[in-house]
UniProtKB/TrEMBL annotation:
InterPro entries, A to Z: Pectin_lyas_fold, Pectin_lyase_fold/virulence
Lineage of the species this protein comes from: Bacteria, Bacillati, Bacillota, Bacilli, Bacillales
Taxonomic source organism: Cohnella rhizosphaerae
Protein name: Right-handed parallel beta-helix repeat-containing protein
Length: 226
């Protein structure tokens, strides 16, 4: 942290991701003794440096939006959340955040609001507006938007393809879903097909999609699937 402004980021700063410190003991006054797993790795610690420790990261989200449509949240203020402040998942579309704030509570020395993202949009269906909002002092991204696309496939037969580098939570293909194919430059290919069956190999991050109709022979294997 910048020791003068108590805001994230400063010259020659250090960040630790996923590092669990050892046992902490109060020694009296304002002194705490912390066991370090590898003391030699912490020799950069100097007097007058300032750090913030996230005790929780993805433990609990403040407001979760699951598959809503035509929804507006207005004038919502979040002072603290041990996870994401706003998270959107599923078939969420046509929604809006207006004049929503993720900020420090006035008069406190708290240096963090949401320990994870301010607004995390997973598998976006698009059609959302974020208007006059303030996402500040987050422990991770202020705004993180995932789409639900994947690029590249291997053709198994006329109706079946195999996808690699896919995860079930990130690319939740289901029977009945309509999949649109686009060219590698995102321009429309004019091809769409319904999924008939899905077979996952999660260990290899692969899945096979069988479609209800044959896929055109000229479909490029670098196409993008929505």
């Amino acid at each position: 942290m910048n020791p003068a402004t108590l805001t994230p980021g400063c010259e020659l700063g250090h960040e630790f991701n996923g590092i669990h410190l050892g046992k902490a003991c109060a020694m009296g006054g304002n002194v705490v003794r912390v066991e370090l797993p590898r003391p030699e790795s912490y020799r950069f610690l100097k007097q007058d440096q300032a750090y913030i420790v996230r005790h929780y990261v993805y433990d609990a989200n403040a407001i979760e939006l699951h598959g809503n449509a035509h929804l507006t949240l207005s004038n919502v203020t979040i002072y603290s959340a041990p996870g994401h402040a706003f998270i959107s998942t599923g078939d969420q579309h046509h929604w809006k955040l207006e004049r929503c704030r993720i900020v420090k509570r006035p008069g406190t020395t708290r240096c963090i609001t949401a320990t994870a993202d301010g607004c995390h949009i997973s598998n976006s269906q698009g059609y959302f507006i974020i208007d006059r909002c303030d996402f500040s002092y987050n422990g991770d991204d202020c705004l993180n938007i995932h789409d639900n696309s994947v690029q590249g496939f291997r053709r198994i037969d006329d109706k079946t393809i195999r996808l690699s580098r896919v995860q079930r939570w990130r690319n939740p293909f289901c029977p009945g879903d309509l999949v649109e194919f686009r060219h590698a430059d995102l321009s429309p290919a004019g091809i769409a097909a319904n999924v008939a069956a899905v077979s996952w190999d999660e260990g290899r991050e692969q899945c096979e999609l069988e479609f209800a109709s044959e896929l055109p022979a000229e479909l490029n294997d670098r196409s993008i699937l929505f």
